[in-house]
Design a protein that fits this description.
The complex is a heterodimer of chains A (260) and B (190).
Chain A: H1 7-19, H2 24-36, H3 38-52, H4 66-88, H5 94-109, H6 126-144, E1 149-156, E2 162-169, E3 174-179, E4 189-196, E5 203-207, E6 213-217, H7 220-223, E7 228-235, E8 249-254, E9 256-257
Chain B: H1 3-17, H2 21-43, H3 46-63, H4 74-92, H5 97-111, H6 127-136, H7 141-152, H8 157-164, H9 168-186
Helix pairs in contact in B: 1-2, 2-3, 2-4, 3-4, 6-9, 7-9, 8-9
Classes of the chains: A alpha+beta (260), B mainly alpha (190).
């Protein structure tokens, strides 16, 4: 039987195709037919358009306000990533940008030997970025249930695997840094946490001990202006804040406000 | 949905394509209720629907520039993004089958009980969707429900039978009859 002589049958197949219930071999044969014959293709497109209407006919419901806050945060994470990328790739601005730019540029020049140095999610592929965003979103949801937490940052390594979780409790003025990855520094080294204010010098927030959790006094107000934090590998005990980080950056992440 | 409403949404999508975050917010304010309702229907879990809505708007932020080439009514295009993000989410959570089927059972108790027309407010739907709405309302409620779920959740006959705890033959019959009536009815709105 030549299907093309049976427009009614074509229409029936097109409807089932668009609905999604035409499956397996029958679906593939219909697709082949549609590629070869415009009339079949037209029937398929007509039904796809009609079925699409189903998405408009569902009962409306109010989403919780936190959803918009999460959308904004996701966009902010992308913006910060892009901004840091620009900062890192702008050698002409190096002199005027002082510390921060020189530091970022230095990281860039460190070359392949220091490829462990990755900034935010730059250089990680789309899939990993999507996973990172999903992690951030999941943590935001979790943290939304804990109203005292004002800021959160997921610090990731060069593979975009979450390695540290930072939360800032504005009410109690406390910063908590929790190791979630398996990274352990050598005995003669310390990890140091840095705030990265835009256009300014990195500012030391503290040096990590060997415990899984580090608690530091923190000024939530001051962190409001800081889009990102990073952790560098330093000599045992860390380095003075004025000197800025001297070792490679192992982990970094955007500071994100939790939905209120 | 009036042509003016469509034009306003299209203008917002164009501004979103030009990286205007205020336009994304305005688009969200206008459409989030409807799109969240859709995500809720596809995922059947508020938590997942929230995630899907969030991912959908981030996607819209990225691909708004592709909208015009789709030649779709704006709500249909937005609906398609939300449906596909919701389906992605469902697939990622597919391991958790019990969580998925439980609310479906509740939903079915309501749905398969009556035969009344769907009281849905469709004032904001496109012309095509309104025609579809009229035609769907001529089906038995259970046929309408099975056809809607097949599309919205991208389910095969077998998936539907399993999720709705109905015999496969029954699902196939409902779908076949539902589609036949829908074809006859929609032919008038060609």
């Amino acid at each position: 039987m030549n299907l093309l002589n049976h427009p009614d049958l074509i229409d029936r197949l097109a409807a089932a195709y668009a609905l999604g219930t035409l499956r397996g071999g029958a679906r593939r044969r219909f697709e082949t037919l549609a590629r070869e014959h415009p009339s079949v293709r037209a029937a398929a497109l007509t039904w796809q358009g009609r079925m699409q209407g189903l998405t408009e006919l569902q009962p409306a419901a109010d989403p919780p306000p936190a959803v918009w806050a999460r959308i904004q945060n996701t966009l902010a994470v992308e913006r910060d990533g892009a901004a840091l990328e620009r900062q890192r790739q702008a050698p002409a601005r190096q002199a005027s940008d002082g510390w921060a730019a020189a530091w970022w540029r230095g990281l860039g020049l460190a070359g392949t030997a220091a490829a462990v140095v990755a900034v935010i999610a730059i250089g990680v592929n789309r899939q990993e970025r999507a996973e990172l965003r999903a992690q951030v979103a999941a943590l935001q949801t979790q943290l939304a249930a804990t109203p005292r937490v004002e800021y959160v940052a997921v610090l990731v390594d060069e593979k975009a695997a979450a390695s540290m979780l930072m939360t800032v409790d504005g009410q109690r003025g406390q910063l908590t840094l929790k190791r979630v990855g398996g990274y352990r520094e050598a005995d003669d080294r310390s990890l140091q946490l840095w705030a990265l204010p835009p256009g300014g010098a990195p500012r030391s927030l503290g040096v990590l001990g060997r415990d899984a959790v580090l608690r530091l006094p923190a000024d939530a107000q001051a962190l409001r202006e800081v889009p990102a934090v990073a952790i560098s590998l330093e000599p045992l005990g860390g380095v003075p804040s004025e000197r800025g980080p001297t070792g490679p950056v192992l982990f970094s992440g955007s500071v994100i406000g939790t939905p209120s | 949905m009036t042509p003016e409403d469509d034009a306003a949404l299209i203008a917002l999508i164009d501004r979103v394509a030009a990286r205007d975050e205020a336009a994304l917010r305005a688009l969200y304010d206008r459409t989030a209720r409807r799109l969240y309702g859709l995500a809720l229907r596809v995922t059947s879990q508020p938590e997942w629907a929230e995630d899907a809505l969030q991912e959908a708007f981030v996607t819209i932020w990225r691909i708004a520039g592709d909208y015009r080439a789709s030649l779709s009514p704006p709500m249909a295009w937005l609906g398609l993004v939300v449906r596909s993000r919701s389906l992605d989410l469902l697939r990622r959570r597919a391991a958790d089958r019990t969580a998925l089927t439980q609310p479906l059972d509740d939903l079915l108790a309501d749905t398969l009980a009556g035969d009344d027309a769907d009281p849905m407010d469709n004032a904001s739907a496109s012309e095509l969707a309104q025609a579809l709405h009229l035609c769907l309302n001529r089906l038995d409620r259970k046929q309408r429900e099975v056809v809607s779920l097949a599309y919205l959740r991208d389910l095969s006959h077998g998936d539907l039978a399993a999720q709705l705890a109905l015999p496969l033959g029954t699902v196939k019959t409902w779908i076949r009859r539902g589609l036949e009536q829908l074809r006859a009815c929609m032919a008038r709105y060609a």
